[in-house]
Amino acid sequence: MIYAGLRKIRCGSNAILAASQLYVRADKMNFSEIRSFLNNCINAYDSQIRWCGEKRFNEENMLDLSPGGHLNVYNYYVVGTTIGGNAIVISQDDPRVCFADHTWYSDDLLHYEDIGGDGEWHELPMNHENVKKSLHTLALTREKFLALLKAGAIESELDRID
Fold first, then answer.
1. Exposed site from 6, 37, 117, 149, fewest CB < 10 Å?
2. 134 pLDDT more than 50
């Protein structure tokens, strides 16, 4: 997978942001797989979700951008954003379609509200297991997500949590 990213370059004690550079990431998920899912989403319902095209997919998932830049390290990718600036996330390794708040993730720590469980806030180290735990499930499969999207149920859930 190819995505755009910003690299921090250290010059003495100052950190400066370099121009956007292209990074290559060898993942199982490629944009053609994502495009098929997104086309179905766009055609399913006129929703509040802003779905990603290829350019925007790269932008939403670049390094140092939250949540995409933090989640794609664990093979989760932002495929759309909500009115509140939060993310709709999918993975090749996880059949779910999930919600991720853009404020929950940093380089080494995640601080999230368990909106689908106990409603409590949790602070955990960033690792695959904790990232998976932090993501709020919107649907258990992409097919179920499309059905819920067509029925308007995803909009209702996003209105509740976003």
1. 117
2. yes
